[in-house]
Design brief:
Blueprint (H helix, E strand, L loop, with lengths): L1 E9 L3 E3 L4 H16 L17 H7 L19 E5 L3 E3 L4 E8 L7 H14 L8 E11 L16 E10 L2 E2 L2 E2 L7 H20 L7 H9 L5 E7 L2 E4 L4 E4 L2 E8 L1 H4 L3 H10 L12 E6 L4
Antiparallel strand pairs: 1-5, 1-6, 2-4, 3-5, 7-13, 7-14, 8-9, 10-13, 11-12
Length: about 300
């Protein structure tokens, strides 16, 4: 997993959506395609270069052949995450951060991807086309997205507080989970499935853990407390010419220290992979802290 931190400065004053993840994703897709496309075909699927195209790998992401238990999936999770700072009113010269996370072989194309993000920002983001300039070279660290994480993790020294920083969208049995309905079992099973798919499709590591046993164990655990709310959010789809509801859960979840140990490595890793729907746009981002209970 590669982590790249980019700093941009606004070339003029302007406005961005309060949640800028969708604007970044859309501008990035257009800029990357314009940078690498050699056929000019509008539809990528029938393109003769599909299997060798960086844009197709990042935005279409067909699963590799011969993936055993994963062969039923027709697409793989996208191998990137964009985490921008909040939008709103932006003054000329104001800096904005964008955290880019790449998984697996997409790190080999990180220079091209960052160049596409730079190009997208210069052309302008959002409906008002706010132009940004990349003002600081990227910094990167690369770590392994391990199918059995457990190395170099801090110890749990108290109850686990999970702060949902961006709206969490989890869909169970054809409906999105509401503030009163999010169980630890549902949260963990969705997270573990995402990690297992990222490992299998992008790290090319077989996910040998007993998935069912871990999920069954998670379903026997309950939050110590949950203070959640439904945060309204919409994004504008230029393709559909309409707003799309992206509302999700924010707030704080608490897991007792005695219950957290068995799930700790995957919960820790989920801070970097994100969880739920819309991860590529920065949704489902959470941060964890441990707090010792008062005696």
């Amino acid at each position: 997993m590669g982590r790249y931190d980019l700093t941009f400065a606004a070339r003029t004053a302007g406005q961005l959506p309060d949640w800028a993840g969708s604007a970044w994703r859309g501008a990035f897709g257009h800029a990357l395609k314009q940078s690498v496309c050699v056929t000019g075909m509008k539809d990528c699927a029938p393109c003769p270069m599909f299997d060798r195209c960086v844009h197709a790998r990042i935005f279409e992401t067909p699963p590799p052949t011969g993936q055993g238990k994963m062969r039923k999936y027709t697409t793989a999770p996208r191998p990137y995450v964009l985490l921008p700072t909040p939008g709103g009113r932006i003054e000329a010269g104001q800096t904005m951060k964008l955290a880019l996370r790449l998984f697996g072989s997409s790190n080999q194309d990180h220079a091209l991807i960052i160049r596409a993000l730079e190009r997208a920002a210069w052309r302008g983001l959002g409906r008002n086309q706010l132009s940004l300039k990349l003002s600081q070279p990227e910094t990167s660290t690369v770590s392994t997205l391990d199918a059995a994480p457990g190395r170099d993790l801090p110890e749990i020294d108290g109850d686990l507080h999970i702060e949902l920083l961006t709206p969490l969208r989890i869909r169970i049995r054809d409906r999105y989970v509401g503030p009163a309905d999010l169980s630890f079992g549902d949260f963990f099973s969705v997270l573990l499935r995402r990690i297992s798919m990222l490992c299998t499709f992008h790290q090319r590591q077989p996910f040998e853990l007993d998935f069912r046993a871990l999920v069954d164990a998670a379903r026997r655990v309950h939050w110590q407390s949950a203070n959640l709310r439904l945060t309204p959010l919409k994004r504008y789809s230029s393709r559909q010419q309409t707003g799309i509801d992206m509302s999700g859960l924010t707030g704080t979840l608490v897991l007792a220290q005695r219950d957290a140990a068995s799930f700790w490595p995957w919960l820790w890793l989920g801070q970097h992979t994100l969880v739920g729907r819309g991860c590529v746009m920065g949704l489902g981002h959470y941060r964890m802290t441990t707090v010792k209970s008062a005696i």
